Amino acid sequence: MVQLASGTSVSERLQPAKPALSWVTTAARVVLAGVLIVAGALKIGAPALSVQAVRAYQLLPDSVAQVVGYGLPVLEIITGLLLLVGLFTRAAAVVGGVLMVAFVIGIASAWARGLRIDCGCFGGDGTLAAGQDPNYFWELLRDFGLLVCAAWIVVRPASRFSLDSALGFTGERETTDEDGSDEGEDDGA
Amino acid sequence: MSKRTSEAARARIAAQRETLRKQEQRKRVTMIVTIAVVVVIAVAFAVWSVRQGASEKVAGGLAPVTVQEDGTVVMAKSGVTAPVVDVFEDFQCPACKQFEETSGSTLKNLAAEGKAKVVYHPITIFGQEPTKGNSLRAASAARCVTDGQQWLAYHDKLYKNQPSETVTGFTADELIKWGKEAGVTAPDFDNCVREQRNVAAHQQFSEKTMSTQKLTGTPTIKLDGKDLDTSVAFVPNSLREAVESAGK
Fold it and tell me: From the record, what ranges are coiled-coil (chain A) (predicted)?
């Protein structure tokens, strides 16, 4: 009786375990997408400020800073939109993750070099107002958290409320593999 | 019997293959459509963004420029007293350079069109070397220029040649050379720059300005005394719109 109960509970627990994880991916998608879209939208309207914020890091040559200043908000918004609707989720998450790695490197290096700047993450020109202190620690923590979200999505891209699953893209790699072996047998027969 | 089974199996496999082929095709189509949509959105955003950041060209001549006693410089058509655009800037501040590159020409045009009175307030916000010294030398040199038009040309020259915040720049020789290039004709300009004659006056002016105007950074752009948000000031179209509607 007890055995039976525990047995069913285990199988029950195992069964919904996967859907639960796909919900985690959905949550990670929404969080990462939300931050990317908001960050991009706040920057895209004033590209001169965005360029200035990139320059404030003193990491990139001027011409590259221009390109990043104009291009980054566009990239953030598009990556965010793809994550939000869940289309090519894994690829979008890879891009999001790479962005977060770049941001972490940028902020950490600004901190290490003793620069006193604002990250410019959500608009602004990267300068701090008088009497304002940099928030490097929290900025790094936030971007690291978002990096974890991105990594999770890359590892488990299948999720609820995604166009990928609606279109039957998720888990299709296994099907292709099965198909490959089927085909081989078939050709042999 | 066995023939029929193998036929059935073959049919099943064929059907399976067909489904897979369709799935693959759907994936390919989705991929192409997505890429196309992404490209279109990216281009649209990029075009809009570039337009947002695009600077105006200085079309005609400049409005009359006058160097004031206290070191501020007024650019306005005669008789135009409002709306007032105050520009608090530091020659060494990179964001000020960016503002100048982005919106400087818009201010010149607005003044020339008689739509605004623009007042430049060069100050020094930096407290640490080498930025402080750079800023002081440049601002002091600018005060050696007495003609308004020449001052503005020199002002633009200083931003164009702004040194990095990590090195000592704006040397006396450079400051004099750029003055010549900007057409400065003030008779004692060379000595004035070399002796840094105006540093004390400029420092006093800076301190007073920062406290009375409650400045927290540069550039600070004020429209009729009210701080203009950077997301307006750094977008030429928005800046023009704000100034024009203040003039109505």
Answer: none
Taking only residues 174 to 203 of chain B, the set having a beta carbon closer than 8 angstroms to any beta carbon of chain A reads none
* ipTM entry: 0.80
Longest dimension (CA), chain A: 79
Q: How confident is the model at residue A171 (pLDDT cuts 50, 70, 90)?
A: low
Longest CA–CA span in chain B (Å) reads 114
| Distance in Å, alpha carbon of A169 to nearest chain B alpha carbon | 7
- Give the mean model confidence (pLDDT) for residues B70-82: 92
- Which one of B95, B103, B164 has the shortest CB-CB distance to A125? B95
Structure tokens that stand for B157 in this block: 């020259």
Q: Which band of pLDDT confidence, cut at 50, 70 and 90, is reported for residue B108?
A: very high
3-state helix, strand, coil in chain B (%, to 5): 55, 10, 35
**String of b and e for A64-86 (b: at least 16 CB within 10 Å)?**
ebbebbbbbbbbbbbbbbbbbbb
Q: Compute CA B60 distance to the chain's CA centroid, rounded to the nearest angstrom.
A: 21
pLDDT tens profile A42-97: 999 899 999 999 999 999 998 999 999 999 999 999 999 999 999 999 999 999 99
Q: Calculate the average pLDDT of chain A.
A: 82
Contacts by residues B198-205 (CB-CB < 8 Å, ≥ 24 positions apart): B198/B71, B198/B139, B198/B140, B198/B141, B198/B143, B198/B144, B199/B136, B199/B137, B199/B140, B201/B71, B201/B143, B202/B71, B202/B122, B202/B123, B202/B124, B202/B136, B202/B139, B202/B140, B202/B143, B203/B124, B203/B136, B205/B70, B205/B71, B205/B123
Residue from A44, A49, A76, A132 to probe the interface with B (highest B Cβ count within 10 Å): A49
Instruction: Tell if the CB–CB gap between B13 and A182 is shorter than 8 Å.
Output: yes
B20 close to A (CB below 8 A): yes
pLDDT at site A151? 97
Average pLDDT of B94-99? 92
Q: What is the structure's pLDDT at B60?
A: 78
Count CB pairs under 8 A between chains A and B: 107
Separation of alpha carbons A83 and A96, rounded Å: 9
Query: What tokens were used for B109?
Result: 């045009």
- Verify whether the Cβ–Cβ distance A167 to B27 is below 8 Å: yes
Q: Is the pLDDT of residue B229 over 70?
A: yes
